[in-house]
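We give its fold:
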Amino acid sequence: MIANDLFGQSLQRNQGETDNTFRVRIGQEITRTRGTRAAIIATLTDLTGRTPTVFEPARSADTGGWGSQSGGFYGFAYGGAGGWGNLDMPFQALVTAYRPAGTGIADVGGWGGPGGYGIGPIEYGDEAMIEGSVTDADIYAAVAAVLPTTAIAWTQISN
């Protein structure tokens, strides 16, 4: 009831999640920083266990600059490898989020793995069978939840 009162349908209990674990997640959501680059990074890292890449075209620390030696955060400089910036794209970011490193479905082999027909257990499966799985929709919703209202995050999801 607490999660529903505070977050509506945006924060649901995971399958098999204990009361204490759910309370901890509710507390994290209440105190979560929102509206910053750091908020996007922290939220996606908490959700997936992997740090995303955030590139802001109007941020010189991401793009480097003319004649710079190190170019800032990513070490870019004119003529070096990196991203190009554009001041006509304020309040926009290119986010590459990474899916969690999956462990598969317990006790089930798959194509090209240690199992197979007549060798070990094999069955058809889907994401619902993986406990604690994070869907692409969860990742998009997490970015939208912490993004400032007037900002745009062009989000790519990768393995």
The chain has two domains: 1-31, 33-99+134-158. Residues 33-99+134-158 form one domain. The helical segments are 2-7, 19-31, 37-48, 60-63, 136-146. Strands lie at 53-55, 92-98, 152-158.
